[in-house]
Amino acid sequence: KTPVLEIKNFHVDYGLGDEAVQAVRDVTLTLHRGEVLGLAGESGSGKSTLAYGVTRLLPPPGVISGGAVVYHPPSGDPYDVMALTDAELRKFRWAETSIVFQGAMNSLNPVHKVSTQMLDVIKAHEPDLSAPARTARAQEMLKLVGISADRMDAYPHQLSGGMRQRVMIGMALVLEPQVVIMDEPTTALDVVMQRQILAQLVELRERLGFSVLFITHDLSLLVEFSDRIAIMYGGRIVEEARSADLYRDSLHPYSEGLLRSFPALRGERRELSGIPGSPPDLRGMPTGCSFHPRCPQAFDRCSVDIPVLEVARNAPDRSVACWLPGRTA
Ligand code: ATP
Ligand code: SF4
Ligand code: MG
């Protein structure tokens, strides 16, 4: 397994000084070449903040307050995305790593045809490509994401939500980036559509060979489609494992609660109701393990010391942040 994007000790705050709240805390996470990595966690756990932070698209008052994001290009030396200049960053986005935002389907420009918008992306990054070659590339990509030739000259409002989302995926892939980050909205797309989109992404991944960081509330989708899953709580990664391992035997009580919140792999969707209580407030984070007020297995140490993400005992390819005996080496 070779890394393509290594997030290291990453921190994001909202606000400055005394006003600052920490939304992403010491996140270390590696995306490997060709894999689909799922990121799950309740609303407010910091998933989007992490995604926008690593691509440096974080809107104010978001501030990256520490860490590195090392990108490994297909050829040449790895580099830290945090150290790129604005000009380098513009090249990096779309061409090396692209992101499909939560609600991206509404970010298409309503006054331009979808084909025009895709051509603009190609033009901005590959100005030397001839106009016919650009058109061919755009058509090919739209076809790949299931937009037929007769819809190419449609305006965004003439397409369904699912089709617009597919157009956004096509734009994200058209420059053949190594990494695609997808931040799926909970409500805007129903779960059937999310499922189709993820299935399609996985299929395209086989053909084009990119890696995916897929963010969703729907853990059942991730169990089914992703290679590995990272679980986020209160701004931290609390567990990370191969999907099958996590599903069979989660090590963190929060993951266990999340898994219990959905009935079956293909069952009907339910809210994350398996865990009583609500996610922590960033302004008053619990001491120690931030999950301790809700954790059915909490004991003395949990409210005092913060557990760090460590390699699990007897399982070198998974990690967990929990003080329960026997969890880590
Ligand atoms: P969802 O599943 O609802 O999309 P999320 O896991 O993506 O949630 P984030 O949107 O990253 O969560 O938010 C993480 C935390 O940061 C939340 O507590 C949120 O209230 C806070 N936050 C997000 N944006 C801002 C902002 N602009 N100013 C202050 N706090 C913010
Ligand atoms: Fe529960 Fe303690 Fe583990 Fe936190 S560290 S998940 S409170 S047992
Ligand atoms: Mg989000």
UniProtKB/TrEMBL annotation:
CDD domains: ABC_NikE_OppD_transporters (cd03257). One of its GO terms (molecular function) is ATP binding. Gene3D superfamilies: P-loop containing nucleotide triphosphate hydrolases. The keyword Nucleotide-binding applies. This is ABC transporter ATP-binding protein. PROSITE patterns: ABC_TRANSPORTER_1, ABC_TRANSPORTER_2. The lineage of its organism: Bacteria, Bacillati, Actinomycetota, Actinomycetes, Propionibacteriales. PANTHER family: MALTOSE ABC TRANSPORTER, ATP-BINDING PROTEIN, OLIGOPEPTIDE/DIPEPTIDE ABC TRANSPORTER, ATPASE SUBUNIT. The keyword tRNA processing does not apply. Residues 5-259 form the ABC transporter domain. It comes from the Bacteria. Keywords: ATP-binding, Nucleotide-binding, Transport.
